[in-house]
């Protein structure tokens, strides 16, 4: 395991299968990159559990509460980062909410990089994910929008609009050789009306041989 503390940007280039861990101080930005593969969050905690991490220049009254935790931190980081090749998250109360006013906090986060494939299907399009050998194993799936560059469109007006579809896609696709995908509000419900969305799925094959490359829907339904 690689460990990094007190970084302005979390710049551990995580190799496949190796856990990277770091603490990023409140007001800074956490950057989780995978040189190869896609992010799988292991743990995340926003708050304070000791008096030494992110303590430089801070008065003692901002460090004394060591029982300060935001219990939704892992879910927030997982929603923003799982299945991405890199992820940037501001370490602020506006993102995580404030678990202890007056305490100077930090984000303690760990993740690994999965040697997986990623499928992106633009809204109202169809796609197929498959394994040349073995069967599908879904790691992560979202329907909505987590950036403005994927599936570009004049209605790509936000980067924080999505529903997790991991359980849904696991029940549909796990254990199969191939799985048809249809990025549709009728199937996944609409997390943000008026925004052009996409279905993103990170997956591998259960014999550890992944299908090649990133798959993007080629045509749009009419």
Secondary-structure topology with pairs:
Blueprint: E1 2-5, E2 20-25, E3 29-33, E4 38-48, E5 68-70, H1 73-81, E6 86-90, H2 93-96, E7 106-114, E8 117-122, E9 126-130, E10 136-145, E11 161-164, H3 166-173, E12 178-182, H4 185-188, E13 198-205, E14 215-216
Parallel strand pairs: 1-2, 8-14
Antiparallel strand pairs: 2-7, 3-6, 4-5, 4-7, 8-13, 9-12, 10-11, 10-13
The gross shape turns out to be elongated
CATH topology (fold) name of the largest domain:
Jelly Rolls
Q: How much helix is in the residues?
A: 10-25%
N-C termini distance = 49 Å
Number of domains as seen in the coordinates: 2
> Mind telling me the CATH superfamily name of the largest domain?
Rhamnose-binding lectin domain (RBL)
The count of helical stretches stands at: 4
Q: Characteristics of this structure?
A:
2 domains, mainly beta, disordered C terminus, repeat, five-stranded mixed beta sheet, 14 strands, signal, about 35% strand, about 10% helix, about 220 residues, elongated
